[in-house]
Structures are given as structure tokens and as C-alpha cells.
Write a structure and sequence with these properties.
Number of helices: 10
Number of domains: 2
Number of strands: 12
Oligomer: single chain
Radius of gyration: 20 Å
Helix content: 40-55%
Strand content: 15-25%
Bound molecules: adenosine-5'-triphosphate, fe (ii) ion
Shape: globular
CATH class of the largest domain: Alpha Beta
């Protein structure tokens, strides 16, 4: 059985083709980069519409299959930006009707966890999912993926991007901040905000930009921003690990590319005698393969949907989805 998965929650339009045993045959994508400033949802959606055909053709070519070989359609129904979600959903519904195959709506955050479990052969990890649009600590418990902690305001990737913009560095900010942070020598105190199990990064971002305007060294600031934000992420993840007593920790999302965050999280995992996983970059970022694989899991466990039940959900929470393919 072949599942074609369409991702389109934010910047990336992706098409993945995965078989029922979890072999990824194709994972094609194109990413919208705003000319300046942050993401403009309608422009991103237009980008997706304009590129859908090339990405789809690229995926079919890479997988060496014809569109008629596809048995199942899956798409990212949320959470994400309305116009982007609607574009991906329209493409998925049109294809599913034309091919006359079943269609499955997939939760984007859960797809990140499932593709990571697949590629890393992780069984039951506490997952830190960190990107430009999301920041969540996720672990499976009693039939669902529970959110053990999350950001109360901006996601950590967005904190790095907006800080970068505020100090005149290019988009995306994460990689540049990481590079400059390596030359940082002095820790500049910045707001560290953990509330219960939740996180906040907007005060940190604003204060870091303010300190730059007041003349603080940029290398020291990048270093301090990373240390502060990442320590908060590790603290909340650690508490989830201690509470659940799980023996695996996984890091995913665009910010997982950061070596310093990996190092800090790995140290914490070691202290709890937990294995540490980071999926390959291709599967940490948004992609069609993660949607296709999750579509397979949903379908194999007997869940079916009617076309009219495939509406998008901009605020679809990770913990609102039943996960019949896992036990415990
Ligand atoms: P999502 O829809 O999951 O929120 P996204 O649209 O933010 O995803 P991703 O590719 O998953 O896209 O993540 C991009 C984010 O990752 C940006 O905020 C970027 O700054 C950040 N990032 C990329 N590389 C690094 C790095 N080396 N260090 C820190 N952050 C990074
Ligand atoms: Fe994502």
C-alpha cells in the first residue's frame, strides 16, 4: 500500500510517498521564503498553490511510481496558518476524489513525533518539538500524545528569528545566532521564564534586542540568548522525563539543527539513563513523508473519514487526537 502525504501548514509545501512498512520512497518539498519580514499567510498559500504540481511531480518521479499507484491520501489538517492549510487540503481532496482513494487528515505535531519514531526506531520517547511555529514537550500517555509543556507566547524558533531581524541578521535567525554564539565569551543575564511546565520567550526576545541597542556585544548576546532559551527547554523536558520515567528523549523540529541544544539535551538524557535521538534533518523539518507515514498508521488502525469530515483545524491540539496505534 502506498500513501501520498501532503504537508502545507506554514512555509513548506511537501509531498511524501511512503509504503505500509514505513519505507520512504519520496520526500519532495519547496519552502516559501518571505522577501522581507515574517511569513505572510496568504503569500505562503499562493506559493504552495503555484508549486504544488512541481513538488507532486518531483515526488512521483523520485518514487518511480505513477499517480494511479497511490492507494491512500493524507494531508496536514492543522495546526497551522488558515490559507496554507486550505490550499494543502484542497489539493489533497481533489487528488483523493480524482483517484477515488480514501483520505486521512493528519495532525502536524503528531506527524513530527511519528516520523521520528520511525526513522530512529524510538519506541516511546519524550519529544521536544521546537520550530518556528511550535514549541511543545510531548509524550504518550493513556491513548493520546499529551502536551507536558509548551510555550505560552512565541515559539523558540520564532524568538531566534525575530531577535535576528531586530539586530539586523538575515532570516532564518537560528543558524546565524548559533554561529555567532560560538564566539560569545560572557553570559549577559536575560529573562528566564518557566511557569509551571510552560515556557515564555517573548520577554527574552525583547530584552535581548534591547540589550543590543544599548551596546551589548552581539556574540555575547547570541550566546546568552541560546543558553537562556535552551536551559528553559531542557528544564521542562527533564521534568517530563522524571515524571513519566520514560527511557527515551527525542529532539525534532527546525531548531533541532542546533548543536548546542542537542548537547544540552543529550547531557540531560544521559543523567536519566535515557537514550537520545535526533532524526536526520530531512525528517526534523516539515515534510510530506511525516504526513504520509502518519496517514498509514491511522488507516491501518481502521480509522476512515468522509470527504466532508476533512475540514482544516487551525488550532488542532496534539492532545485532541486519539492514537489507537499505540498501547499503554
Ligand atoms: P513548523 O511548521 O513545524 O512550526 P517551521 O515553518 O518553523 O515549522 P522548520 O523548518 O521546522 O519550519 O523550522 C524553522 C526554524 O528553525 C526557524 O525558526 C529557524 O530559525 C530554526 N533553525 C534552523 N536552524 C537552526 C539552528 N541551527 N539553530 C537554531 N534554530 C534553527
Ligand atoms: Fe513542523
Amino acid at each position: 500500500m502506498l500513501c501520498l502525504g501532503i504537508e502545507g501548514t506554514a512555509h513548506t509545501f511537501g509531498v511524501g510517498i511512503v509504503d505500509s512498512r514505513g519505507k520512504v520512497l519520496a520526500n519532495a518539498l519547496k519552502t516559501y521564503v518571505p522577501a522581507k519580514g515574517g511569513i505572510h499567510p496568504r503569500e505562503a498559500a499562493q506559493f504552495h498553490a503555484a508549486n504544488a504540481r512541481v513538488v507532486l511531480d518531483g515526488a512521483l518521479k523520485a518514487a518511480r511510481v505513477a499517480i494511479e499507484d497511490v492507494d491512500l491520501l493524507a494531508f496536514s489538517a492543522g495546526p497551522g496558518l488558515g490559507p496554507c492549510l486550505r490550499t494543502a487540503a484542497t489539493a489533497a481532496r481533489a487528488l483523493a476524489s480524482w483517484l477515488d482513494v480514501p483520505i486521512i487528515s493528519v495532525n502536524h505535531c503528531i506527524a513530527h513525533v511519528e516520523i521520528g519514531r520511525l526513522t530512529e526506531r524510538a519506541r516511546d520517547p519524550v519529544t521536544l518539538y521546537v520550530s518556528g511555529g511550535n514549541t511543545q514537550v510531548i509524550a504518550f500517555d493513556a491513548g493520546r500524545y499529551r502536551v507536558f509543556g509548551e510555550t505560552l507566547d512565541i515559539p523558540v524558533g520564532n524568538c531566534l528569528d525575530v531577535f535576528a531581524r531586530g539586530v539586523g541578521l538575515p532570516y532564518p535567525g537560528g543558524p546565524t545566532v548559533e554561529r555567532l554564539a560560538r564566539e560569545g565569551k560572557r553570559y549577559i543575564p536575560l529573562p528566564y521564564v518557566v511557569k509551571g511546565m510552560d515556557l515564555s520567550f517573548s520577554g527574552l526576545m525583547t530584552e535581548a534586542v534591547r540589550k543590543h541597542r544599548a551596546g551589548a556585544d552581539l556574540h555575547d548576546l547570541c550566546f546568552s540568548l541560546q543558553e537562556t532559551a535552551f536551559a528553559a527547554l531542557v528544564e521542562v523536558t527533564e521534568r517530563a522525563v522524571a515524571h513519566t520515567e520514560k527511557k527515551e528523549v527525542m529532539l525534532t523540529g527546525g531548531v533541532a539543527a542546533n548543536q548546542r541544544l542537542r548537547e544540552m539535551l543529550k547531557l540531560m538524557a544521559n543523567e536519566h539513563k535515557a537514550k537520545f535521538f535526533v532524526p536526520p534533518r530531512e525528517y526534523c523539518q516539515d515534510c510530506g513523508a511525516m504526513i504520509a507515514w502518519t496517514g498509514i498508521l491511522v488507516y491501518k488502525h481502521g480509522l476512515r473519514q468522509k470527504l466532508r469530515e476533512t475540514g482544516v483545524k487551525q488550532r488542532w491540539r496534539t492532545d485532541q487526537v486519539d492514537i489507537p496505534w499505540r498501547t499503554g
